[in-house]
Structure formats: C-alpha cells, structure tokens
Amino acid sequence: MSLAAASIIDQLTTLLGANSVIGLPEQMGNYLREPRKRFHTGAAAVALPASVEQVQAIVRWANENAVGIIPQGGNTGLVGAQVPLRGDEVIVSLGKLDRIRAVDTAAGTMTAEAGVILENAHKAAEAENTIFPLWLASQGSARIGGLLSSNAGGVNVLAYGNARELTMGVEAVLADGRLYQGLNSLKKDNTGYDLRDLLVGAEGTLGIITAATLKIFPKPEDYETTLVNIAGPEAALPLFELLRARVGGRLNAFEIMPHLGLEMQLRQGMLDADPTASPSPWYALIEVSRMAGTAPGALQAAVEAAFDKGLIDNAVLAESLADRTRMWAFREQMSEVQSKEGASIKHDVSVPIAAVPELIAEGIAVAERLVPGIRPVPFGHMGDGNIHFNFSQPVGADPKAFMAENDEKLHEAIYAIVLRLGGSVSAEHGIGQLKVDLLRQVKDPVALDMMRAIKMALDPKGILNPGKMLG
Question: 3-state class of 347 per DSSP?
C-alpha cells in the first residue's frame, strides 16, 4: 500500500531535517513549472539533500517504501523528464550538491557535483585558463547532473562533442541506495561494459548522478566569428564543407537561422541592433577558435573563399566582443522569441548532415499545406544535423486553437520525413514524458527490449523517474 503524502513528508523530514523538505504545494512552484509549461502535475514532496549520503538515504527509503523519485537539476529540461507524471512522486533536487571537487589541468579534467550550475563550471575551468565547452542558452540555470542525464548538446558539439563525450566518469546512486563510484579520468579502460555511457543520457531512470569527471580543454586565445548571408540550407551544406576543409577541428560552431527569426527578435526588442550585414533569406553563424601561437585571419580567409565560390553574398565579421555577443544572442534567442510571438509547435530532430536541406524544404512545404499562414522557424546545428524545426502560429490566430488543431498532425508529418531520411525524433532534448509513446513507435523493438531489461535489472521496483522514457 502506497504511503500518504503526509507520511512521506514526515519520514523525509526525519531523514533530512525540516529545512530540507518542502511539503506545501504552494511552495513547490519552482520545482514543478518547467520551461514549456506543458506539464502541470503536483508532487508529494520536494527533497533537498545536502550530501551524497543524504541522496543515498532518500533512495534507500524510497526503494523500501516503493515511492517514486524524480531527480532534478535546474529544471530546464524540455521534455518533462524532471517534473512529476503521476503526482505521488518525490522530487529530489540536487541543487545543494554544488561543489567543484577538483580541477586537474594536467589530466584535462574537472570533477563537479550534480548541482553545479553550468555557468559556474565554466568559471571554474576558466580560472585555470581552460574551458568546459558545453555551451547552451540555459547555462545560467542548468545544472551538471541534469545536463548529463539528458546528454545535452549545445552549440559546441561540432568541435567537442555532446555531454556524453565530455564525460570521463560518473558517481551515481543506484536504486537500492548503493553508490557507484565511477569517477575516473582514464582515457583507456577496457574492463567491461561502459557504465558511464549507460548512466549519461538515461534521464535519471537508472541511477541518480551525483558527480562527474568532465573533460576540460586549453582556452583559445581568441574566437573569430562571422554572420554570413546564404540563400538557404542547400547553400549551407557546401559552405560547411568548405569551412571544415579549411579550418578542421577549430570549427566550433556552424548554425543556421531564417530571416523570420531576425524579424521576430527585432520586432520584440530583443536585439539592440541588427547583427547582419544585410537582409537575407537565411544566415549562418560560424565560429572558429584561435589557439595561442596561431595567426589570426583563418575565418576571414575562408569567408573570402566562400565569396569566390558564390556560396555567400554578404558577411560581417565580429570586430568586438559586443559584435560577437549580439551575433550569438540572435542564435540563442531563436526559441525564446517564438514564445513572445504566440503558440509554437517544436521539434528537436536530427538527420544526416547532407539531408538537412531536404528535411527543411519538405517540412516547410508540408506544414504550409496543412496550416495556411503558419510561420516556419527552423534553426540550429547545421554542423551536426540537429535542427530545431519549429512552427509559430499564423499572425492573429488563437494560440490554444492552433495547438489543439495542429500539434499532433504537424508532429506526425515532420517525424515521418525525419524517419524516412534516416534521422532521430529526439536529437538533444531526450524522451522524458513528452515522447514516451513516440519512442515506442519508432525505436527498434529489440533495442526497446534491451532497454527494458537494463531498467529491470537496475531498478526492479521502478522507483527511479517512473513512467519516463520507457513508460
């Protein structure tokens, strides 16, 4: 028989102390409200452990009492993995586990606890003249544990990889309360299954990550950044190939955005000035790192070569930090501005890089056929094939009616194109509770059986983030 909410609160208070448990619904708001406001379920309680030992105590108690627990970092996830599904779960916020345990520049690693805010991880690395290159718009609130649990991507995946590739090892509390002590910095360790990779990206369904050993890199001496005009995604592909051939691994980012996104941001007053050289149907934001001892000008030379080949018709190079900041603001505010423009139907998808132009062309065509007046706003990581294929409501449309009438049919249409092109229906946001049914439809049945077997082996009572990912 399941515990009543009052009993859960009392027992957690005994375990952690009164100041580490939130039991009143009116005080849980910040832990329940996720960015897209799609999920509105309450929780039995919020637990605020201050140590790994307290996390173990909570999990051990939950396992003994069959209470579902939801690990939560900065509550910035976009698919609902970090918020309740049923209403009887306990949210376990890792915010108090926020120490940088060590920075080892010789090994190129930093050990950070799960509650460390990404921006603070950046500062800790930069204090040692290094960088931790996981970079995304929510870095002021997103926390390491959540970023690893969702295998976050961001704008530097092209050069440095996603969260999984930036993780050397993890420490995690398992469903029975035992601590997996996998914090190592070995580049070579062929001693069986890679448990790190199992836990990173598992969205808290196999264990609660409490700390991680992360890769850090030498800090570039400078960055060269440009915003170039392109006719469309089909022109971005040869431009990307040219850049990659000329600057190789120094190519940090290659992002594409449509002119509509710029129009929206200027209309909403989100940019203090137009960062582009001139109006264009599409833009590509390109950034190259320059390491100490190397000469500047590699990006400018590549841009000139692109002009000669007719791949671009105008460009502006960042000449100051303010220029670079404005260019990146244009890219990073693409999602936020759509919220100011009304309702938005969003897709986080990936396809092989060569298929990006086809994905965008076909997706826009089918959307405009299904919903006259819809405003397509696809943008994102051209360099790794991850496009945020978003659609804003027609001007003047009723937001609720737009979502009710079009959400499901647009998802079906876009996902059909993505799958036909050999892509993924979740590139960097994860599955959470939003895409559980979709995962069942598109995932290889053998892969699903393997995933369920792993879940049953590590969490036989199903207490870790119940209902998420596998349902």
Answer: coil
